[in-house]
Amino acid sequence: MIGNLTNRLLERTENDKEIKVGMGATIIMFSDRWACTVVEVKSKCSAIIQRDKAKAIGGFGSNNWELSRDENGMKFEIFCRNGVWKTKEEKFKVIIDKKDEYYDYER
Known about the structure:
The protein is mostly beta strands. Helices cover 6% and strands 44% of the residues. The protein is built from 1 helix and 8 strands, in the order H-E-E-E-E-E-E-E-E. The strands form 2 sheets. It has a 6-stranded antiparallel β-barrel. It has a two-stranded antiparallel sheet with strand order 4-5. Strand 1 and strand 2 form a beta hairpin. The longest helix has 6 residues, at 5-10.
């Protein structure tokens, strides 16, 4: 298996909720996860999410995070197909209505 086991399991999560501005979102990458917020809904299957601020709590190596909105955070266009949300450019899987941050310190 390639990447983080938790990420591979989360990728199988189906998103059946209606997307709304202000909802949380999580971008699932190879082994990291980025917490985001939905900032614009373009249509039922198209939206813009923005990267949240993530401050590590507990020192180096900790994966406990304090999350907050970042008005200047990186934005990502996302789309859904067959109930699966992905980023438009990189095709990373996106979980809607869940904010989660994880950094793989071992890579």
